[in-house]
Amino acid sequence: MRYFVRGNTLFLRGRFRAASTGVDGGIADVTTILNSTVPRDFDEDPQRYLDLLVARHGLSREYFGFLTAVLMRHLCVLQYDFITVFITAGVTNPTCSDPGTPHTINIIVYNREGMSDAALLETIITATGAKAQALHDLGYDFPGTTTDAVAVACERDTFCAHTYAGTLTGVGRRVYAAVLRGVPEALARQQAKVRRSDPSFFIYSRYGGKHWVEWQKEGCPYYPCHFPGQRCDYCYCPYYPCTDEELGEWVESSSGGRIWACTRCTLLHIPEVADYVKRNPEAALAELKRLRDKI
């Protein structure tokens, strides 16, 4: 899976098996999941708007899509091991007393491990429950808004490792925790209680005790962790885990099992390579290595 924000739209690209409650949702094999910001006075046909959007970007119509009035700079991305969650949130008017007022919480869950169709659907339930709990904890008296949507995706060519996704499962526990943390963070940004100029990235860390960490390159105490003048746009690599043994290796995890370690990899910290990925977010890893070798 590769994700990036282009203009006013978040794109997830890959070979997905996915379920969606959004525009023209269902269960299908798709190559794109997107969440696009539209004007507050938006009154076009959502399906046609999304069809034209993917066509403008040269993408196939194998996609699931969401619309929101929330700006993409308020997007929150949360990574918890093999689970990545993307959230935009606004609760301007949850009651539909004014249907023209924007009010949507969009959640996209990606699992880099395989899932059954039943597990995809159960993840929607788990994420929705966590969203309702988050709103309750914030003092709201409603479990969601009238236009909320959830999409769940996994790599369709991956072994089906998960057949359930309730809160007692490894998938469900991680999804619930990410959504419970992410909804308040996304609302805080949309309501200007927290100000960020770009999407926010959170990672669940076990270093120094289990906790969520928001990564910000500004003021990072570890800079430069590789070499002077390094770029930190991709401190959390979009290619992870690349499994390219020239760049990293499998190591024993302190919590059991094996994990891909790439702490010595400097590929995306090279300024020319970072700029290339920004211009070409779907570039293959082999392209970047060839570029590095020419520098």
Structure notes:
The chain has 295 residues and is α+β, with helices and mostly antiparallel strands. It has two domains: 2-205, L-amino peptidase D-ALA esterase/amidase; 222-294, no CATH class. Helix content is 24%, strand content 27%. The chain contains five helices and twelve strands. It has helices spanning 46-56, 117-137, 170-190, 271-279, 285-294, and strands spanning 2-6, 9-20, 26-37, 63-68, 76-80, 83-89, 105-111, 149-155, 200-205, 211-215, 249-252, 258-261. The strands form two sheets. Strands 1, 2, 3, 4, 5, 6, 7, 8, 9 and 10 form a ten-stranded mixed β-sheet that branches. Strands 11-12 form a two-stranded antiparallel sheet. It is globular. Mean pLDDT is 91; it is low at 96-101.
Order of helices and strands: EEEHEEEEHEHEEEEHH
User: In the CATH hierarchy, what is the class of the largest domain?
Assistant: Alpha Beta
The structure class reads alpha+beta
CATH topology of the largest domain: L-amino peptidase D-ALA esterase/amidase
Helix percentage range: 10-25%
What is the domain tally?
2
What radius of gyration results from the CA coordinates?
19 Å
Oligomeric state of this protein: single chain
N/C terminus separation: 27 Å
Average pLDDT level = 91
CATH architecture of the largest domain: 4-Layer Sandwich
Tertiary shape: globular
Main sheet specs? 10 strands, mixed
Strand % is 25-35%
Residue ranges: pLDDT <50 for 5 or more in a row?
96-101
Number of strands: 12
